[in-house]
Write a structure and sequence with these properties.
heterodimer; A: 339 residues; two-stranded antiparallel sheet; two-stranded antiparallel ribbon; 12 helices; 4% strand; elongated; B: 198 residues; alpha+beta; binds iron/sulfur cluster
């Protein structure tokens, strides 16, 4: 096992996780020479059982019934996933994303508002939308850091602050991670309800992609309230968020409805999706702050510059302006509602 | 020093649970926690076997590898021990352990786990040997007194063996040769990367 090349191990791990939920098959009964079951024969030899089953299970007399699993060799595979696969995956995906963004910054620099600021402001996100975004964002950062600590803390933080301090940090991090998850669930739910309509795929998204998504200075990429890139982030956040929430609550409530294989799979799903999620959100943070002039204010004050809106969300701006004009026109005849 | 191991000869175990009781008594293990347990396979059918299982004190122990706070250590005898002062009760060692050895006291609602507790091979913990502090957290330190684990010592059928891995493997081999069958050294391939060829 220790000798075989890495890729074979991954195949074995994948197969093992697939077969882990398999049920107990019927045992072949060994018969004595007279045809009667032979009680002294080693019919239940351990090696035979292990070939047939992912786990050896039996009956147990103590109240803790989950202990009826006598042996689950998959624990070693999960160990390998957690200590080798996950470490590499996490390091490559997260550091790779940071490196890619660093390179993008060096090559393209900050995407400026090409016509400069107009000085006119348009409301992009109202205060409730901003609240929902920041609730999700802050809880995500807290969950991300406390979660990464469980996997990488012992490599990064423990050697620096020593075992005692690290242990208390990790203990608090565990509680924070468990409780802040509630805020994340609420934030994500709000975001989905608020923005799902504007994130449905439209024809304009294809044009946006064809025009280089706003990254090519000579071309204009048309877009509605959210461009295709933002829509991808939205749908990714929805899918990945749902996956980490479901798997996360399975881990918070261990063995409520899942068995040992279920717990291992929940942890694998939670960790892999979370690492990808962190990488995608790092890119999202980059575009929203350093990467693009005029973007951050949309979430900070809620208002963006007119020229920024023209360059990045022209269709949406048209809609907003025509709506405003309509309101102004009807305002001449009837009392205008306070805006 | 010798590499100590456990071996349960399932063809001798009569599921009396005396090892379980002796362990709980020796270490005053709290209610709800079982460092050792007996699992019966194929209960009531021909070929039924009972296996007494606790921590096997694995080679390359998976529990130690996955622990996010690295609170495990292996003694010169190959006994896998941990520090309850450092443990954060995350439960990862239970997912990694092939034998379901780690146990957690329930400290709150739902799944909140306290400091992990498991079989110490009657070898205590990181505190000074045979002190009240060590006893309170980890139970008796029989190894420091030159004694073997109580479960194996008082097994009436001598099904459960503890001691130098090479010697107990030899005893098991002799038994299998003499009686003509053996269901295997349960857990050895997974725990120690080796079986016992007979
Ligand atoms: S049996 Fe479980 S707890 Fe004991 S050393 Fe092996 S993995 Fe760790
Ligand atoms: S429960 Fe304790 S000993 Fe087990 S992996 Fe978590 S921190 Fe380590």
């Amino acid at each position: 096992m220790t000798m075989c090349p890495a890729y074979i191990r991954y195949i074995i791990i994948a197969l093992a996780f697939l077969t882990m939920t398999a049920a107990m098959p019927v045992f072949a009964q060994e018969l004595g020479p007279d045809g009667a079951p032979n009680p002294t024969a080693s019919v239940e030899s351990e090696s035979k059982l292990l070939q047939q089953l992912p786990r050896i299970e039996g009956r147990i007399d103590i109240p803790n019934q989950r202990e009826h699993v006598l042996q689950q060799p998959a624990g070693r595979l999960w160990d390998h996933f957690h200590e080798v696969t996950l470490h590499w995956l996490g390091a490559i995906v997260i550091l790779g994303m940071i490196a890619a963004l660093g390179a993008a910054y060096l090559i393209m620099g900050r995407i400026r508002i090409s016509k400069g600021r107009s000085g006119q402001r348009v409301l992009r996100f109202n205060s409730f939308e901003r609240f929902s975004h920041w609730l999700t964002a802050i809880s995500f950062v807290v969950l991300g850091l406390t979660g990464l600590n469980i996997t990488f803390g012992k490599l990064v933080l423990l050697p620096v602050i020593g075992p005692e301090s690290f242990s208390s940090v990790a203990q608090y991090a565990k509680y924070v991670h468990n409780y802040v998850s509630g805020a994340f669930v609420i934030g994500l739910a709000l975001i989905v309800v608020l923005w799902i309509r504007d994130n449905l795929p439209r024809k304009v998204d294809i044009d946006w992609i064809k025009q280089g998504g706003g990254f090519i200075k000579s071309k204009h990429a048309p877009s509605g309230r959210f461009n295709a890139g933002e829509k991808l982030v939205f749908w990714f956040a929805l899918g990945a968020g749902a996956a980490v929430i479901v798997s996360g609550y399975l881990l918070i409530f261990p063995f409520y409805g899942t068995n040992i294989a279920g717990m291992q799979i929940a942890q694998v799903v939670h960790a892999v999706i979370a690492v990808l999620f962190v990488a995608v959100i790092i890119a999202h943070i980059y575009i929203g702050t350093l990467g693009m002039e005029g973007a951050f204010e949309a979430m900070a004050t809620g208002e963006v510059d007119l020229n920024w809106a023209k360059e990045h969300h022209d269709r949406w701006l048209e809609e907003q302006l025509s709506r405003k004009r309509l309101a102004a026109r009807s305002g001449q005849t009837t009392a205008a509602p306070a805006e | 020093m010798a590499r100590v191991k456990f071996l349960c000869d399932a063809d001798r175990c009569i599921e009396c649970n005396a090892c379980v009781t002796a362990c709980k008594n020796e270490h005053e293990v709290p209610w709800g926690i079982n460092r050792r347990r007996v699992v019966t396979i194929n209960d009531g059918k021909p070929g039924e076997r009972s296996v007494s299982m606790a921590c096997m004190h694995c080679t390359d122990a998976p529990c130690a590898a996955v622990c996010p706070v690295s609170c495990f250590y292996t003694t010169a005898d190959g006994v896998v021990l941990h520090s309850k002062d450092l443990c954060i009760g995350c439960g990862y060692c239970f997912y990694a352990c092939p034998f379901g050895a780690p146990q957690y006291p329930k400290v709150g609602n739902f799944g909140s786990r306290g400091k992990m507790d498991k079989c110490t091979y009657c070898a205590g913990g990181p505190e000074a040997d045979s002190t009240p502090a060590e006893y309170a957290k980890y139970g008796a330190n029989r190894l420091a007194e030159g004694k073997l684990p109580i479960c194996a010592e008082m097994c009436s059928t001598k099904s459960l063996l503890a001691g130098d891995g090479a010697i107990i493997a030899e005893i098991y081999k002799e038994r299998v040769m003499k009686r003509g069958y053996g269901s295997g050294a349960w857990g050895w391939t997974t725990a120690y990367h080796e079986g016992i060829a007979v």
